[in-house]
Write a structure and sequence with these properties.
Number of strands: 7
Strand content: 5-15%
Distance between the termini: 57 Å
Order of helices and strands: HEEEEHHHHHHHHHHEEEHHH
Structural class: alpha+beta
Strand order of the largest sheet: 1-2-3-4
Radius of gyration: 24 Å
Largest sheet: 4 strands, antiparallel
Helix content: 40-55%
């Protein structure tokens, strides 16, 4: 039932925060201190988010609804209202509208909608931890290849060579976005040859168990795992489907077709941005049916134990392997893919 001006005005504080819902994601929080805060709950890129819309009575019910509707229009256009607000805040803080950070946040708000959750989180962290602090305040048109090399060099000093390479790619994408908007004339990242400024990548494969008898021991250890039931099911399924840990953690019930024995992972969740169809063995379907009574009413097959609407933590599977006695140098959640690849190649299966 929608809120009314009278209901908002007469809302009383209690010993705990109270939530009064309106429509289409808008609600009012009444704090124990008597404050009344407007909030808008929305979903962007598969993740639930909150946007603060001001406080009552400075922001009336009608004004709060208007702000909610403006945010919904941004969502319709594929823009995250929270990121749009950050960009606007940067401008108000005195940054020119064409600084690298402002343009970068605008770009991120548009491209992140189609990204897998883990990809989006990594991108956001790299921008805010490495790139924006170094060049975010500079007008994008003033930046040169030397400026970008400076960012890459700072990251290299921390020993994060892979992050340094990815930062080069990210900066280039932002420049090309700016060129499309007429805010920059060229992309200086194209003048940088990473092989000339970074040492060769030290390729390290994910630790995995690949000796057949040892694999049998691992599977028996998983069957005997005494931790959380959902974690045990995730471990058992990981050994049968060979997907990346992030794809397993973010598996949603809507993606499974038991009749066809298929798991269709949407393109937005895949590293290569193409839909991936995973055939399910009889054993895999049986595991899913075992856990369905526990988590089937929610979105994720393997939800967080905190009950916060998020998927299982990325550390859960690795922590379970440690609990079973497997050191990080022996086996990881990603190692199930290496195990499968090694053994299937040895059996003569094509790549």
């Amino acid at each position: 039932m929608p809120l009314t001006d009278t209901a908002v005005r007469n809302a009383k504080r209690g010993t705990k925060p109270a939530k009064l819902s309106d429509e289409r994601g808008l609600y009012l929080i009444v704090t124990p201190a008597g404050g009344k805060w407007w909030r808008f709950r929305y979903s962007f890129g598969g993740k639930e988010k909150l946007l603060a819309l001001g406080t009552y009575p400075d922001v009336s019910l009608a004004s709060a609804r208007d702000r909610r509707d403006q945010a919904r229009k941004l969502l319709t256009n594929g823009t995250d209202p929270s990121e749009q607000r950050k960009a606007a805040k940067a401008v108000r803080a005195g940054l020119a509208a064409n600084t690298f950070e402002v343009i970068g946040r605008e770009w991120y708000a548009k491209v992140s909608a189609t990204m897998a959750e883990s990809t989006k989180e990594n991108l956001d962290r790299r921008l805010n931890a490495y790139i924006y602090p170094a060049i975010g305040h500079r007008p994008i048109s003033s930046l040169t290849a030397a400026d970008l090399i400076g960012v890459i060099a700072l990251i290299e000093k921390r020993g994060a060579l892979d992050v340094a390479r990815r930062a080069h790619n990210i900066m280039g994408r932002i420049f090309r976005y700016a060129i499309g908007r007429g805010l920059a004339g060229r992309d200086p990242s194209r003048d940088i040859e990473l092989a000339d400024i970074l040492p060769p990548a030290d390729v390290q494969h994910h630790p995995s168990v690949t000796e057949p008898k040892a694999v049998g021991g691992l599977l028996r250890a998983i069957d005997g795992f005494t931790g959380a039931f959902a974690t045990r099911c995730a471990l058992r399924l990981a050994a049968l489907v060979f997907v990346r840990p992030g794809e397993l953690r973010h598996a949603e019930w809507a993606e499974f077709d038991f009749e066809k024995a298929e798991w269709r992972i949407p393109a937005g969740k895949m590293k290569m941005k193409e839909q991936h169809i995973v055939p399910l063995s009889v054993q895999a379907v049986a595991i899913l049916r075992e856990i369905q009574p526990l988590t089937g009413q929610g979105r994720y097959v393997f939800p967080s134990e905190r009950g916060d609407g998020r998927p299982m933590s990325e550390n859960t599977v690795n922590a379970a392997l440690r609990r079973m006695g497997y050191a990080k140098e022996e086996m990881t959640g990603h190692g199930f893919r290496s195990t499968a690849s090694t053994l299937l190649h040895e059996l003569g299966f094509p790549h």
